Amino acid sequence: MYAYENERCMFLCLQKNLATYLSDCYDSIAVFLCIHIILRFRAVTAKRNVPALDKYWEAVLELLWPRFELILEMNIQSIRNTDPQKLGVLDTRPHYITRRYAEFSSAIVSINQTFPNERTNTLLGQLQIEVENFVLKMAAEFPSRRDQLIFLINNYDMMLSVLMERAADDSKEVEGFQQLLLARTQEFIEEILSPPFGGMIAFVKESEALMEKGQLDKLKNDEARITQLVRGFSNTWKQSVEVMSQDVMRSFTNFKNGTSIIQGALTQLIQYYHGFHKVLSQQTFRSVAARSELINLHHLMVEVKKHKPNF
């Protein structure tokens, strides 16, 4: 009888001390680790058919889970209320808030994989949404779309790199940032191709749209425009690619990511020039003398490879 009372008093004392500690604790990772330690202990005792501590485990978890969820909700609210204009000087490099999020989220995701909890996944999903909104709000502070895209790509790439070190490749967080990074990278590629090659790109898109409708003859009187595009590309493409490559490598903090963007831009450029060849091979433009001045596509591909950086 006395032993039972002593054990009961000890359990109540432990619970009281834990409750006191948790009331002033804001270390969500530490709390989450405690939860998973208990889940592991509970699994071991269940496997060994030792039910004596079941009520104690449940009582402790009833203290830990609400505190963990409260801290996570506070983090969500903090990100939601952040004002980008109060965060100092604008910089296109990864922001310290997104880095903290990535490290925090990857830690929680890696721990949660052992004993998945749907409530935790839901809260992490809400936190991710708020961080995505924060990144967009920060990007909107930059005056040019080019700088906005550089900021977004640098932050998405950094968060993805940190998450992939610990989280599974098929986790929601990894998949979400992969999609965002891919979309903004493709937009950035179009953005940097536009100044030096925008005229040719616009002509290809316009021509392909008319070809689908069988109305390509509407451009048969554009010989002067076509001649200018052909000669302009031949005379400036090497210098334009070199300048573009140097600019990209200066803009992105991750050399590997910068290299990938350059390769994507050069691949897209070749595809546009292939489309240019295809359009000018149509009967409508057979009489255009400048067709003979087009760069051979295979030769262009060989030359382009020389401009790919090696990192």
From TrEMBL:
UniProt cross-references to InterPro entries, sorted A to Z: Vps52, Vps52_C
Pfam families (alphabetical): Vps52_C (PF20655)
GO CC annotations on file: cytosol; GARP complex
A biological process term (GO) from this entry: lysosomal transport
GO MF annotations, alphabetized: syntaxin binding
Vps52 C-terminal domain span: 13-189
Protein name per its UniProtKB record: Vacuolar protein sorting-associated protein 52-like protein
